[in-house]
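Here is one chain, start to finish.
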Amino acid sequence: MSPRSSLSAAPFLAAALLSASAIAAAPAPFVAPSAWMSALGQQVLAPGYAELARSSAALAQGIGAACDAPGDGTLDAARAAWRQTALELRRLAALPFGPALESRILRRLDFWPTRPPQIESSLRGRAAGTLQDERIGVTAKGMPALEYLLFDPARAPLGSDPTACRYAAWLADDAARELDAIQSTWSPWVDSLGETDPETEAALLSDSVNILIGGFDTLRVKYLEKPARKPTDRTGFDAWRSGGERAHLLALFDGLRLGLQGREGLPGLTAILRGRGLLALADRLDAQTEAVAGALQGLPPSPGEDGGAAIARTVEALAVLQGLLAHDVAEKLKVRVGFGDNDGD
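Its structure:
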């Protein structure tokens, strides 16, 4: 091409480059906090809690079968049902929004660390008729209490302890009843998000960002840092009795990640950032989320036994991610950080 033809083509090339640049930098659609919460409620929370209610009922049936026909087969089936139910709960526990927060159901279903003395005292009192069901506290209820009864290596198997078996079946039934009671509350909550004013939108955004910050703090401190202070002791980790330590950590992270990044057809916090033109910050969040995911995948199945270095890497990656949310994101979105009530222990 001659110099003259090159010069004559330059304006067209420049226009093409500008056009391509404009396409690449096209703004993301604006996502209101109410739209974020509405989609989360409709696509994740309402169906998730409905499935959790069904799983809890199936768990109660499985434990009842283990009580009626003690044996390795029925006990194994009950344990498998607990594993499925507990993982469903752990993912949902990361997202205490709407009715889950208002009802504080997660505290009743998911009190942890587990309190064996309170569980043993409550099952004896209930069997003796000296403790009414409504007086049994959260420290002796929920999925962690059921894990203790189903898996603890230091106590008798449920099949050989009818009192504990009946109590375990009641715990699973109680969880199913609690879950059934909130099913009808999801639709009104989602409907209430259809008409919001700017003040409500700002409150929704602030509360939601704080809940995510609090969730990542819980994952980092409660489920990793504190248990890791005893390097060779796995008993401080969630789900150690059932051998599900890493699986539960990953399930909790999966729930948090869904709130943070969303998925196809479901916006997350990063979609809100991109819709406000904060593309670089959203990209940084995505990159650090991937770093956390990789660190968690690198944990051994039982981190308390041989995962010291891997835990340290995961804690560091989580601290960076939490810092991005608590400082950079909060500043750009004008959110005051105080953490949400994420139903910790």
